[in-house]
Structures are given as structure tokens and as C-alpha cells.
Amino acid sequence: MSDKNSKVLLEINNLKKSYGNHVVLDGIHTTISQGEVIAIIGPSGCGKSTFLRSLNLLERPDSGEILFEGENLMDMAGEKQGLFHKKTSSEKSLNALREKIGMVFQQFNLFPNMTVKQNIMLAPVKLKLMDKEAASKRADELLERVGLSDKADTYPNMLSGGQKQRIAIARSLAMNPSVMLFDEPTSALDPEMVGEVLHLMKELARDGMTMVVVTHEMGFAREVANRVMFIDEKNIMEEGSPEEIFSNPKSPRLKDFLARVL
Amino acid sequence: MKESNKGKVQRRMLLLAAVLLAGIFVWFGSDGTAVQAENDDSTLIVGFDASFPPYGYQDESGEYVGFDLDLAQEVCKRNGWKLVKQPIDWDSKDMELNSGSIDCIWNGFTMNGREEEYTWSVPYVDNSQVVIVKADSAIHKLSDMAGKIVAVQADSSALAAFTGEDATDENKALCESFQDLQQVGDYNSAFMNLESGMVDAICMDIGVAKYQIESRGDAFRMLEESVSSEQYGIGFKKGNDTLRDTVQNTLFAMSEDKTFETIAKEWGLTDCICLKEYVPALLVEEGDMEDDEKSQTSYVEEGEEIVQGEKVQEDTANNTEGKSASKSDFLSIAKQLGKGMLATLSIFFFTLLFSLPLGLLLTFVRMSKYKVLQWIARIYISIMRGTPLMLQLLVVFFGPYYLLKMNLSYSYRFYAVIIGFSLNYAAYFAEIFRSGIEGVPLGQREAASVLGYSRMQTFTKIIFPQMVKRVMPPVTNEVITLVKDTSLAFALAYTEMFTLAKQIAAAQTSILPLFVAGLFYYIFNFVVAFVMEAVEKKLNYYR
Description:
Chain A contains 9 helices and 10 strands. Chain A has 262 residues and is α/β, with parallel strands linked by helices. Chain B has 19 helices and 12 strands.
């Protein structure tokens, strides 16, 4: 359960997004506080990924507000820019804010041309968050934390799916984010590798990381999340503690959905 | 601190490398025939077709030699000029002359039918168009050629004699009777055609005919009847009377002191020269006008049998050994081709050096978010890929003169080749790069973006390295094509290896040089493919 007194990290007001005539999100309101672990569930195509990707503007919403620590992300980003576009100051601060919002993808998206360690180190060094030595030390710590110290100098193609996802999580952690977004982090994994990734995420949650997780793993949602969001019909249809959602669903659509996935 | 010093050193090294490259580039540009020369008063740039022995061709040592070039050399010596021998593509001779990249055309250049197009010297060689057939051919006189296939050199006076504006009705009718009149690029291929039975007869200048028969032996013979008689002169740019007069007066002086005759004798052309008839009376002091006059008119009209004729044998026997037509072996041909190889390599190297970065720049423009820029790149690529490279080379070379009335400097020839090739190849590379960039999964960009990378950082660290790996196979294809495309530089008369091979082939009346050149290309491409494969393997550390 989120602590009533904890700091609000993200506040989302009246968020709307459509592709052409197809409305995906229609006026979402919610807040995300520090330390919360939120699981987003819902039928496929319901817009849960779009919602998650809106939170760091990978998808640009059509209207609404996304306040991150009080600053509206929507005021910052311009249109999609060309390669030689001169950076505006707002774009720079958008990049600065994005450093604070980590993201883990379904397809891992590790950089295949770099070693595991370079994948983790490059961004903090490039963005001058750390010097090389500090970044290297931090990378070693993170590799140990995800249990892959021996893979530091291999290339991603030598790793299994579960290992890749653990590295992707370490890469995201290297930026010291305030909140981490997970976009179906276990959906591309073979079943026997799902456990190792969920285990790592559980540890993160226990250590107090704020997490927003789009997932099909109902077990994880029930066990680890302290709030579950059911998105359907373009909005948050129902949300609450895992017990409320899983044991006492109110809307027929949620009941229907749970009946199909559990 | 350490870091920034290292950066400085790297930048300096880069700068130094750039300066060195620029230096090499300029040096190559000035290297055309290893003579550094601008188009000024103290040089005479003579344009000639280097596959036209004995008037102008390449000997075994790689030197351009010939009757006309010896004459030009003597004229230059007497005037204190430096002679630049510029082999040209015969089809482009007018553009070369008008644009000032050559001063005159001096190369067994037929005046008849071209009287109005150039400022001419007086005629100095009396030449006729004769017909050569295989020794066992059924063709014995001109009328036997009805229904046969006849070859002539493209844009030659033999062609003009049949189809030109001033062609006689007789010749036109004769031409009508042929099954076909085929144009070939040079006499070497004409003889290959004749030998293999693809054509039945070749029509050519008598001087050339004699040379060819002399060096090819008795497998061929010349018809007694000639198609037409004509004269050779030196062609200058229309209106350039000053230069014409200077050159012509020098020739008169050479005729007076017999130098002209001596040179003609060296080349076995004693019976063809006619300059003496035109030397102004004032200059003629001794009255030895009568002796050779008659015999100059024409061999053929006198009905002499040329092939076995003693006269020809005598005239040429002494000098052909040293001056021409002795066939070379593989090694000496390879050695001769060496210079051309260097030219081919320099085209190859500089084209890659400029077209790869230019292609990448073009890719950026093509992928720009601005529609206007996108369209500019699209149209550019469409034109560069949609028109022949040879035409593009001609436009780059002659464009500055015809469009902007700029006079072309001597060294521009090489620059034009590199500019033309680079502009063309950049278009192909741009599309290859684009496909490589678009092939990098979107997730890579998203991951970079959420990690706070700027666009430039994303491109240099993530997209570009992955693109390079993806485009290796198609780039290798293009690079190999480029090796072979370098031979197109002949369109601008830049003597790279294949042009040189053709010239040597013409001089030696053998096709061996072409095969040697082919072998060189193969080895070159083998090395290129090997290197590219090694690079690909090196990039295989990730997938």
C-alpha cells in the first residue's frame, strides 16, 4: 500500500492519445508516489503499453499533463527532430528528466555492438553523470547485483534471454532512476527464464524502487505490487490493492478478464 | 587533462592526414602525362587518338610516339615550347578543342569534309581511303563489296567518305550496296572482326592500312581501287589563326631543311607526304620540286600491289623494328600497364575517399524531416542512378566550358574524373546507407532515447556502428563494380589501365594486352573482396 505521506513522483491528468480515428487512451488520471510498485494489467490492445510509454514520452500523448516532480513533461518535448536539429533548452531538460525515468523493454534492446559492461557504462559517462572510473565501479556493482559478474566482457548475443533482461535492468539502474518503467519484461522470455527476472524485480521492489510494470504475470502482480491497475476501454477501469482486484473484482469486464487469465 | 591532450593530438593527426591527402590529390591531378603544364603560351597541347599508328600511338616503353608527334616535337623544339601529348577520346575531340583542354588536333586528321569546322594548316599528308580484306577473300574490286558487311572506325574519314555530307554519289551508292556499314571503336577490334568473319572488309586510311598489313603479315590484302583520296592537316580551334600560322611556318622551315622528309622517311611515309606543294614560293630557293611529286599522289592509283610491293617492304623494314609493331611478351605488357594501374588505383582510391562521406551526408539529407530536403536528395539520387556514368563524366568535364565559358586547366581532367565518379557513387552509397540505418531496430533508438542520449550520440555510438555492419555486403558489391567502372575514365581521355591496354593493343596489333588488363582487374578485385571479407569477419564479434 502506498504511504499517504510519501512524495508524489508522477501525476497524470486527463491524458489522451489516439492513432488517427482510433482512440487509445481517453482522459487518464492517476498519481504515482515514491516507493509504489504498480502492476498494469488488461487485455491485449487495451492501451496499457501506450500508457506506460507515454510516461517518458516515447509515445507522445495528444493532450493532458504528465507532471514529474512538479514539472510538466508535455511542455518540454518538441516534435520529432531531424538528426541535425539544434537542441532547445526544453529538450535538454527533457533528456535530463528521462535520466530519472528508467525503462526496461520487452525486447531488451541491448546494444549489440558493445560489451555487457559498455552497455551499462556508456550512458552515465556520455551524460557526464560519472567519470569512467566511477562508472566502471558502478557497473561492476550492478553486475554483481544481477548475478552476472562473469559476463562483463561478453557481447549480448552470447547471453540467454533472461540474462539479457537482467543486464537491461542493470543498464537502467546505472542511471540511478527515481522510477522504473517495465514494458512486459518477461513476455519475450522462455518460461524457465521468467523466474530469474521476476526474482530480480522483486528484490528491487523490496529495496524501495518505484516501479510501474505492464505485465501478464498475475502471480507477480498479486505478490509484489502494492497497487494493481486494470486498463480497459481506453481508461483505468478499476484499481486497488492486489487483494481488492484479484479477490473482489467489481466490474464485469475485470471479472471476465481474470476468469480468462487465472 | 590527459584526456583532452590526447584529443588534441588526434585532431592534429587528422589535420595532417587531410593536408597530406589534399597534397597527393593535387599531385595526381597534375600527373596526367607526368608533365606539369598549364595551358599557357609556352606549351603546345597536342590532342591525338593514341590508337592510330603510325601517326600517334604508344610504344613498348609506354611513350607516345608517331609521325605526327615527332613533327609536333620538332615544331615545339624550334619554338621553345614544351610539348604535351594528350591522348583523347576521338568522339570528344571537338569538345576537347573548343574547351581549350587541347591546342590542336594533330593525328592523321582528315581535312576533306571538315573544311569549315576548324582552322586548318595546309595539308601535309596525302591520304586515301582503301579497303582491306582477308587474303583469301572473294572481294577483288570495290563492286565486289555489294551485299557485304564493311567496318569503319567511328567518326573516321572512311565513314565520312561513305556517309558524310560531302560524300560523292559514287561512294554513297557503293555504301548503299553494302549489307551493313559497321562502326568500330578502333582498328584492333576492326581486325578482330575481320579475322573472325564478322565483317568482310575494313575501310581505312592508307597509311594505317600499310602499317596494319606490315605488322599482321600476309593474312590480309589491300584492294587496288581506293574509295577516296584525301589529305591530312592540323586542326586548330576555329579562329585561332595565330597559333596555326606559327606552327605552319615552322613546318615550312622544316620542309626547307629536309627535316620533314627525314621524319617521314623514318615512319615509312615518304610516299604520302605532300607538304612541299604548299610551301610558299618565296621560301623555295632550290628548284628540286620535280622529283617526288608524282609518286606522292597515291600508291593505289599507280596500281602497285601493296601487299607484296617491294617499295613498302623497303620503306618500313628498317624502322618498324625499332619504332613499332614488334609484339611484346606478357611481362613487358604488364610493365607497360603499370602506369595505367597507378591511374586506375588513384581513381579507385579517391572516389572511395570522397563518395563514402558524401553518400553518408546525402543519406542524412534524404532522411531529413524537411520534405524539401528529402526531395532534393531523391531527385539527385534518381538522376545519378538513372543516367549513364559516362554521360555524367562528360558533363562534369565539359560543363564548366559550355555552361560557364570557363577555360579548362590541364589538370582538371583528373579532377573531373574524380568528381564525376564520386558524385555518382555517392548516390548509390546513400541508398545503401539508408537501408542500413532503417534496418537497425527501432528499439535501439528507443533504448538510447530513454537513457538520455542525444541524437548525435545515438547516431555515432549506436546506429552508425550497427549500420556499418549491415551494409558491408552491398558496399563490397559497389566497390568491386567501381574497380571495373574506372575504365569509363577513357570518356575523358584519362589514360587509366584499360585505355592504356587498348592503346598498346592497337600499337602491337594484338589482343594480348586486353587479357593482361583483365587479369589485373581480376587480381585487384580479388584483393578488394579479400579485404572486405576480412573486415566483415572482424565485425562478426556481435550479431
